[in-house]
Amino acid sequence: MTTINNSIQLTGRAGNNPTIKNLENARKMARFAFATSNATTNANGERISQTQWHQVVAWGKLADVVQMQVKKGRQVAISGRLSSRNWEDRSGQMRTKTEIVLNEIHSIS
Prior knowledge:
Blueprint: E1 8-14, E2 19-22, E3 28-41, E4 47-59, H1 61-69, E5 75-88, E6 94-107
Parallel strand pairs: 4-6
Antiparallel strand pairs: 1-3, 1-5, 2-3, 3-4, 5-6
C-alpha cells in the first residue's frame, strides 16, 4: 500500500487574482486565495452552504502557470501539501499561517 503523506486535493474557485513576486535568483512566487464550498440540508429542509477559505502559494514555473491561468472566480482543481509557519509580529504576538504549497493545478472553467 502506498503511503500518502501530507497531500491535499481540492476543487474550488480563486478568490482573487494571484499576487506575483519576482524574487532573487530569478525565482517567482504566486499567491492567491482559494474557496471551497459544501452544501448540506438542515433538519428543516433548508439548503445551507458553507465556504472555507485557503491560501495557496506556488513557486517557480508553477507560479508562471498560476499567473496565466488563475483569475478571480475561475474554478480550478489543485493538489499540493499543507505547510505551516510561525512568527512573531511587530506587537510581539505569535502568529501561525497554514497554506497550501501547490504541486499541480488544472483549470476547470
